[in-house]
Amino acid sequence: MPDPVIPALSRESLPDDIKVMFDTGMARSGDATIIAVMAHQPDLLRWYFDDFYQGLFYNNNGISRVDVRTKELLRIKLSKQHGCQFCNLSNTVDALAAGITQEQIDAIFELQSPVWNDKDRAVIALAEEMMLQNMAGHFSPELYARLGQYYDDGEIIEIGFVAAILTGVAKWIFTFDMVNREEICPIKKPALVA
């Protein structure tokens, strides 16, 4: 279970719009600690869900140039690699809704699987460069050329920026102990001192 130092606020104390976020988190993952802790700074929480997700990620403000399926593929690869249980449960729902199949989700660590096309493989390869576990991540000319077959330079920048936000948030939520970690999570909880 998450055990944040900053206490989670009770659902009853949350503003109505944040109660909706809390309830969605509970319905999708069985835990909404991240929402209840982030609610200490409700404007930041709203920015993350309204401006980043609804605006940039799902393009409800018209600034995104990258299709949602690409971003969902990037996100499910990062969350599966990072091992955030809350993220994985929620992101699986959204990945399926965006047209990624359960077979593809199950093969997310198998880049050469026949379930992937070359466009998907290029996006997954970028996620592997951006993930927490890859401190030597590098955007090589070869990866640029692979992505460039499907995306223009602005779209490649957008995909990388989305990956950066998601990876940075993953580091933050693990460090602040706001989510359950899966075995693959590279950020381990410190051992209890007796």
UniProtKB/TrEMBL annotation:
<dbReference type="Pfam" id="PF02627">
    <property type="entry name" value="CMD"/>
</dbReference>
<dbReference type="GO" id="GO:0051920">
    <property type="term" value="F:peroxiredoxin activity"/>
</dbReference>
<feature type="domain" description="Carboxymuconolactone decarboxylase-like">
    <location>
        <begin position="47"/>
        <end position="128"/>
    </location>
</feature>
<protein>
    <submittedName>
        <fullName>Carboxymuconolactone decarboxylase family protein</fullName>
    </submittedName>
</protein>
<dbReference type="InterPro" id="IPR003779">
    <property type="entry name" value="CMD-like"/>
</dbReference>
<dbReference type="InterPro" id="IPR029032">
    <property type="entry name" value="AhpD-like"/>
</dbReference>
